[in-house]
Amino acid sequence: MIIKDRSDLDSSLNDRTATVFILLGTADSKAGAVHSLMDSENWDDWELYYLIPDANTLLSPAELRDWFEGKTSGCYAVLGGKDIPKRVAAKGPVSDLLGANEKPDYFVILKKMLKGEQL
Amino acid sequence: MKTALSVVLVVFLLLAAGCVNGDKYLNARGVLDNSITYSESDTANQKHPLSRSADLPGKGATLQVPQPAQVDENSTFEIHIARENLGNKAANQEIAQQSKELLKRKQDVANALNLLAKVVAARQKTLQAYREKNFGQFYPAKDESARLETNLLDNLTAIWPRGTVEYVQLSDAYDRPKFEKLQALLSKQLAGIDETNGVIEKELDNHARALTLEAFLSSRDHEPVAVHLDGYDTLKEQSLIRIDRYGLDLSEDEQKKLDAHVQKNQEMVVALERLRTGEATLNQTVQQVQAMLAPGISQLLDEGERLQARLNQPKLTERARETRELFDAFIVQIRMRDGALTEGRSKQLTDERDSLLGTLIPESEQVAKAVSDCTKTAATFKQDWQNATPATVTAVIRQSVATVKSLRAVKLPEVYSDVEAKARETIEGYLHDIGAPERPALLQSDEARVLRSNLKEYYADFHDAAKLVENAAAALSSLQVNPVAEITASAASFQVPIDNIKDTFINLEATPGQQGDIITVKATLKEADDTVVDTAVAKFAVGRFGHYAELSPAVVLIKPEKLSGGDDGFRFAPVLSWMYHWFPRPENSSGAAAISRAVDPALGIHSAFTHFRPDGGGDAVQIGLGLTLSFWRNRLQFGAGYNLMAKTRSEGQIYYFVGSDLIGLLQTVGIVKQ
Questions:
Q1: How far apart are CA B213 and CA B229, in angstroms?
Q2: All residues at 6 or more sequence positions from B54 whose CB lies less than 8 Å from its CB, including other chains
Q3: Which of B143, B157, B177 lies closest to A107 in CB terms?
Q4: Which residues of A touch B (CB under 8 A)?
Q5: Would you tell me how many other CB atoms lie within 10 Å of the CB of residue B644?
Q6: Which parts of B557-655 fold into alpha helices (H)?
Q7: From the centroid of its chain, how far is CA A22?
Q8: Could you tell me which of B134, B118, B149 has the C-alpha nearest to residue A117?
């Protein structure tokens, strides 16, 4: 889901069952491509993912620092665990989610998601 | 001084000659030569290696193959095969590597499938807990499910790494949450691996080699015969043919040979005595002896002339006319008895008659030519043999070898052992289209009986002609031992896959071999497509080693010590000695062994048959007993003995003789058949 406000994101972040996969970037960026691929795959109800085009507006500076090391696009973070606030299971540049052909790699993305589920 | 020098020289020559033990070896040429070794177990169950190794410059230790090695006639020789050397190592290693990789892949895919099943089960549990909002179960189930799925992904990406086509296919097939496509893909992969494994196994089969092992016994007077090798042929092992090493417990065959030997000796003594006393001329004696030595040739000539009288061109023309008439009479009989015979079938009977005659007559002409050639050959050989002198005898023998080869090449029609049955079968075949009710009466008719008898004569002539050619070849082949190249594979041998190869043996006591015979062992290694990879041939000469004794008939010149009122000079007489030998084994290189090998001495007792009588005395045979000393395998014999019939020394009580196992000697050079 491409989000422009925090309502869904907050709901997910406060859901003890959820694993939240956040991508920073526009729809036509690499992050957007990863998001598109995730859209085309089947996910469980507790596996949630979001594309945030305007991170500066939507995320607090603390969130940007803790989850994305201050960056506002071209990166991702996977948050999981039943405790609130959720903990970061994986984070890094979006390029980590791409294959050799610069296309999103489903298995890499899935493994990041599963990492979040194991928190 | 001169005498001493001569003695030293003679001893030196004997030692030098005796060091030649008769064993010959060739260096191993190929993988088979290097993988087969032979050893002999003698009567005392002692092992003697028959293969040996030698250090060759630049090559190191190399196995040497017997060509031939000598084996004792009462022994068993074992054939050991190092099968690990015979496989196609390079190809098998490559295939084994492929197979190993494939096995690992199969294990990985099977593991992934197992893991997938666990993932599916864990996910179902997680989903159920989630739907039921049973969070106490959900969190650990989700954790376990994620852990298992991560393992699955690691497993799959290890089999099909990133960047490969399979990785992309796998991504497409990864169909959470049901995983049906993934399961199908993995199952398909397993089936593919099994299929590839089948191809590899087939490839292994293609590289599977097999060994054929055959043994043949070559005797002087016989065609080579196949010898049983346990595990390598379907031949039956012969029953034990024990050879008494003390020469007294003779088999029926040995007894017959001895009787014939003694008989020939006596005949020769009579002929030689007639010469000595002036009753016959040298020419008469030579002819008598020659006729005695080659009776087989005379018999051959008689048989050849008998057959020629039946198989000359005018006779054949006459016989063809007669057979045609008998057929015509039979056809008339058929027409009379079979009312339903159509005109077409009637013509067919005539055509079949012509076809049968068209085969029989040319075959008869072919047989006639073979008989004529064979008889001419026998006549020429007889003539040459009678005119032979010591200087030409080897040329005559050589000529016989060439003649035998040409006789063996003679083409003859198919020969039937039961000529009566063949004639009956021909008539029955002729009536194949005649109705069942008429056939028995026709077969029993006079016309059928006469025709059958006529046809039988053709088949009988074919049979006799084949026998004539065979006998002629046998009579002339006394010097021949067929070379290995002429030995064809025994139909009874089979190919043994390398994995099933085992050591085997030849028991010479269950092999109809005699001293001087050659056992040839031929090994052939083949690929699965019958391509020959390598062959090996080893030969073994059958002999006698150690202690043994034998009866030895001989023709000797015997002389009474004193004979009052009569001739006390040398005269011919037959002697039968029982000689005790010790012949060293080939590996014995001592000086005594060398001398023994060179002169083959033997000591024994004898009985002599003579008639020392004063002039005008009777012809009654006198028997003497005494000692014999022989050399060169009884060829030269010296003896002295006591005449049991003489009362005083002046009546020839003590006698001496010198003689030879003349018949044995002639057999050795191939002049007299055994």
A1: 8
A2: B25, B27, B61, B62, B64
A3: B157
A4: 16-17, 41-46, 82, 99-100, 105-107, 110-111, 114-115, 117-118
A5: 11
A6: 591-599
A7: 2
A8: B149
Q: Which residues of A fall within a CB distance of 8 Å from B153?
A: 107, 110-111, 114
Residue closest to B661 by CA, chosen among B545, B551, B584, B571: B551
pLDDT at position B20 is 58
Task: Give the number of other CB atoms < 10 A from CB of residue B552.
Answer: 25
**Alpha-carbon distance A1 to nearest alpha carbon in chain B (angstroms):** 19
> Does residue A115 surpass a pLDDT of 90?
yes
Q: For B277-322, what is the HEC assignment?
A: CCCCCHHHHHHHHHHHHCHHHHHHHHHHHHHHHHCCHHHHHHHHHH
Q: Vertex B32, ends B26 and B35: CA angle to 5°?
A: 95
CB B42 within 8 A of CB B617: no
In this structure, how many other beta carbons lie within 10 angstroms of the beta carbon of residue B5? 9
DSSP A41: S
Nearest to B633 by CA among B597, B608, B658, B666: B597
Q: What's the CA gap between B521 and B227, in Å, rounded? A: 9
Residue B152, pLDDT score: 93
What does the pLDDT read at residue B148?
94
Q: Which sign does the torsion angle of CA B68, B70, B76, B80 carry?
A: negative
Structure tokens at B172: 């497409």
pLDDT recorded at residue B21: 59
Establish, for the pair of chains A and B, how many residue pairs have beta carbons separated by less than 8 Å.
56
Inter-axis angle of helices B446-476 and B295-310, nearest 10: 150
Q: Which helix (H) or strand (E) holds B565?
A: none
d(CA B406, CA B473) in angstroms, rounded, equals: 9
Residue A64 has a pLDDT of 92
Q: By CA distance, what is B147's nearest residue in A?
A: A118
Q: Is residue B219 within 8 Å of residue B474, measured between CB atoms?
A: no
Return the DSSP state at B130: H
For chain B (length 674 residues), average pLDDT per consecutive 10?
Answer: 64 57 78 88 86 72 82 89 78 75 85 91 91 91 93 91 85 86 88 83 74 85 78 73 72 79 80 80 69 64 80 82 87 77 76 84 81 76 65 60 64 74 83 75 85 87 80 57 41 78 87 82 85 88 88 90 86 90 86 87 92 72 91 91 89 91 63 48
Domain boundaries, chain B: 19-86+210-235+490-543, 89-206, 294-482, 546-668
Residue B621's closest CA among B644, B601, B594?
A: B644
Q: How many CB atoms lie within 10 A of CB B20?
A: 11
Domains in chain A, ordered, with CATH? Answer: 7-117 (3.40.30)
Closest by CA to B174, choosing from B186, B165, B182, B185, is B182
